[in-house]
Each structure stands twice: as structure tokens, then as C-alpha cells.
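SAMPLE LOG
Freezer: B-3
Tube label: C17
Construct: single chain, 256 aa
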Amino acid sequence: MKVSSIQLEITDRSKDENITHALNILDRVPDSDLILLPEIWPSGYFSFDRYQDESEPIDGPSVTAFSNKAVERGCHILMGSFVENDRGHLYNTTLLLDPDGNIAARYRKIHLFGYHSEERKILTAGEDVVVTDTPWGPSGFSTCYDLRFPELFRRMVGKGAKFFLIPSAWPMARLDAWRLFNRSRAHENLAYLVSCNCAGVNVGNQYAGHSMIVDPLGQVIAEGGEKEEVVTAEIDPGFVDSTRQEFSFLDDRVFR
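STRUCTURE (predicted):
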């Protein structure tokens, strides 16, 4: 199975320009079974003053454009996240689109960031732990700050997750934590983890880049740098089961 994370450079350009840019890069991504985009890339995570005006419903034009692209590429696309407007409530929403252009999963970010961030003031937190069946196995979803909360990932494992898909807008100032959490969440749950982080500078904040593909043993299979790029790797979905069968410390948990 081939997985690709599009580590987009986020600038202060318009939403339409960002969408056009992302679609153009998508056209150049090597054939992949799954392609990921980062967190709130259409507006830029730190562009809080744009959230309301650039929000859209789940059947809005952005989702339609990427649904069409999923059909065209014949693959799953994790659209990253965008500001969803659902009857006046705004959410940080991630969608998984299948090769038929349908929404295979929707995850609304549960842990909203409040440290030097307006996200918690503007958005409504999600409530649902989401795991969905995919051709490669049950996949769970989280977004950026969620990485700091291991109990969410254990909840996903409890629902059968073998893969974690994580769009992010993690800042350069906390790069060490980013790299630590990517590896830890994968290994402590014996699951693959695929993250897609932003690159570039948005409203004076530099993103960390370093999108990662990590195996169930916590080994980094592929990792981006600090610039815009596509991070691609081949993974073996069967490795999750074989790893858990050989040394499944998950079975020895006392607290569940």
C-alpha cells in the first residue's frame, strides 16, 4: 500500500488560491492508495479572522472539488481539515473521501487548542471518537493537538483502529514534541500513524513540517523536512496484525 502526505506550504494567500495550489499538487502526487492534506489549510490555521467568512457546509464547493479529485485519481483522500459550518456552529472537520467521491468518514476535532490560539473561542469541539473501515484496515482520526492526549488513541484502538490518520498545523516551536508524539502514539498502540503537517509561515507563525509515516514499532518510515513536499512510503497493512500477535502488550493492560 502506498501512502502520500502533501506537506503544503501555507501562506496568507486567499482560500481559492490555496485550493487551486493543493489541487495542482494532487495532480502530481505519485499513484497512491491514500493521499493526505494538513489541518485548516484552505484558510491557514492561524488566520482566525477568516474562519467565519470562509467556513462552508459539508456539501460545499471545497468538498465537492476534492470528491471529484478522489474519483479522478481513483484513491482515498484525507482532505485534511477545513472550517465546517453546520447550522451556525463552526467545527474543525476532517473528511476521508473514497475513490467513488463519497464521504467515508467525518471527524470533528475534539481537543481545541487555546494556548496562543483563538480556535477554542471560535469553534465548537467535536464529541465523537471516529474509526472507520477502509480497504487497508480500520482507521482512526485525530487532528494536531489531539496528539497530546493518549487516551483518545486508546479509545480508537478499543474501537478496532489499526491506523491513525492525522492532519496537523503544528508549529516549529514545538517540533521536538511533534516528533515524539508521532512515534509514541504509533508504538504504544502498535498501529501505523500517518501525519500530514503544514509548512511555511502563516500570520507570522512558522509551521514545523516534518510530516511522518511511522510503523507499529515506532520506527519512522518516512519524514518530511521543513519545506513544501510530498512524503510518500510503501507500508504493509498486515504488519499491524503480525506485530500485535508477536508481542501484544495491549493485551496486558490493567486500565481500559
